[in-house]
Task: inverse folding
DNA sequence: AACCTGTGCTGAAAGGATTTAGCAGCATCA
DNA sequence: TGATGCTGCTAAATCCTTTCAGCACAGGTT
């Protein structure tokens, strides 16, 4: 029953050919169809509630108004879903729809996912990564639009990344603005980490920004503690140990919120109050950061903005512009830095 | 360059008509094509790396091997992305691909999203909800397959829900198994909450299971504390107040992990140790639950299983079977319940 | 009168798969 | 010998949209 309305139905009702109706509905510029014809077609389309059949259109034009989103991980972190959410929003705004695939980072699944998307004639593919910065991408037909999201690739040069360097600067600046220049402890930087595929580029840039801001202020860290695993437990242990050694920092920069969580507990156990005795600033704006008391002031990862940006770049009329597109990291002020 | 391989190419190479090739590749049962023809076609397809054009197929058959996933919220909780992840996995296993749309729960966006999916001839739509149990669904063409995920709807009778009642029982049973029958405190139940659209059904079933298990064991709660906002701060405050009043529970059942987080802090501040002095069990298996020390023993929400299940139901050959399909909640044992 | 030039529109093909109807050849049967 | 049935395959229509080539007519030139 109730078959879908086709272009032919619209054309018939407007007393025109499907060809004319098609041109009019697509707003072809150079056509010579009368004003009257335009009105009749639009009226007919509206009255019948016509919606074009995307499969037919895709078959003919090889564009589906659909973008592919291939991610190594989807559910593990809020980061991943933030990227997707941003992408969905931008796609919706552009009248597109998003095909999502998860690959676990396995090249075979990735190749299969890409094939499945190409079978459906997606207009472009976003490759998002949660774990590796330089990311594997299967061979693709030339001319396919691609954007690397939180990732880079030799062959696919348009990528969207958080502006970690500026973010790093901001963290330090927050402390400086609070009048803290000395006695700052850095928690989490690991020279080894730079060689790690996962966070190498991220961490390097973040630390670069931190160092630059310190240097600009003519300040030096009281101590830099390398920590491999950025989780609450090590954060707790290292902080507790330093405190036990008699170190009395005025502030701690933690390279992520989970370390900060641990540090916060250790400070509490040592009878030190945040932010009165010690200020704390960290990175990521983890869900955690809002739960803690005091709430963590943190430099957030701009998940949604990045996802949004990726779609916008993908749909740029002339194709995605090459280059690293840096997205500003939000400064989330809570209560872990003392008021000046 | 390098145009895609079409069915006609395969047929030509196999020395047959496209019709024959189509039947063979689709494994039509009643056809009378020779064994030899079968082999030639499959060989040709493999050699050329043929992949069918889904748009063409969809145009002809009105099936796209694509499922729609319409969700009110995508990024807010791990719950949402877990549902998606599960759906993606099951879809991949079934050779399908997933079109995701987010609506914010707004009927207009929802209607638009559904239209966009129907334009692409999806084989069915999953309606997922994070916030409302009885969920709005726009009018749909008859015959479209639908599954409600973490939601219910009058007209669309196939839904997937967590088995909260059994989950509630499990929580209590964990305490009973640890030899704790008395001095149990219930934190979070709110009679008012039952009337709240969001978690009404969930909470009601959860509490029903808890009560049933207690009754079965002939046990009664030491105290039941209603808390409206299930966040760490209220968890802390209510627990601290009860302790200050001199209450000394042997165990606390928290209706979610965030409350438990607060309770844990309050217990610590009062000098009580978990699990030695007080055992703690809660719900949701929030990210938080693993971070805390001790790790929270919790009854998890089976996000991924639910997402997976929804796709499986959607693709059931005879259409999604009506009814409430309950998914078992996992018991996540950590260290917040004392060993017996 | 023949020739252009615009104007406003249409016919038909194309895109790639599926599916129905049916053709040719051969064997069987009466 | 003609009818019948089976086997193995193909021609052509169909799904719906887009797009190229071009038709018919009006009005203006030469």
Result:
């Amino acid at each position: 029953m109730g078959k879908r309305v086709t272009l032919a139905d619209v054309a018939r009702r407007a007393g025109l050919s499907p060809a004319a109706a098609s041109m009019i509905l697509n707003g072809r510029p150079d056509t010579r169809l009368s004003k009257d014809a335009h009105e009749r077609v639009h009226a007919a389309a509206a009255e019948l509630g016509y919606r074009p059949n995307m499969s037919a259109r895709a078959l003919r034009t090889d564009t589906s108004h659909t973008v592919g989103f291939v991610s190594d991980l989807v559910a593990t972190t809020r980061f991943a879903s933030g990227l997707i959410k941003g992408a969905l929003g931008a796609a919706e705004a552009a009248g597109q729809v998003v095909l999502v695939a998860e690959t676990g980072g396995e090249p075979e699944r990735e190749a299969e996912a890409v094939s499945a998307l190409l079978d459906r004639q997606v207009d472009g593919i976003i490759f998002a990564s949660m774990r590796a910065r330089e990311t594997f991408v299967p061979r693709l037909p030339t001319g396919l639009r691609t954007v690397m999201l939180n990732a880079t690739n030799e062959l696919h040069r348009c990528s969207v990344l958080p502006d970690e360097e500026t973010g790093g600067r901001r963290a330090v600046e927050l402390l400086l603005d609070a009048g803290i220049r000395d006695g700052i402890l850095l928690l989490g930087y690991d020279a080894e980490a730079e060689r790690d595929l996962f966070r190498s580029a991220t961490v390097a840039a973040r630390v670069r920004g931190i160092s630059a801001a310190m240097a600009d202020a003519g300040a030096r860290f009281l101590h830099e503690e390398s920590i491999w695993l950025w989780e609450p437990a090590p954060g707790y242990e290292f902080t507790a140990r330093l405190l036990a050694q008699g170190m009395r920092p005025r502030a701690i920069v933690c390279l992520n919120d989970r370390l900060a969580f641990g540090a916060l507990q250790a400070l509490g156990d040592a009878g030190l109050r945040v932010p009165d005795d010690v200020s704390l600033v960290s990175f990521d704006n983890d869900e955690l950061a809002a739960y803690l008391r005091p709430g963590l002031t943190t430099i957030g990862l701009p998940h949604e903005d990045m996802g949004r940006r990726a779609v916008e770049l993908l749909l740029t009329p002339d194709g995605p512009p090459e280059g690293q597109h840096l997205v500003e990291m939000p400064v989330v002020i809570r209560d872990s830095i003392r008021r000046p």
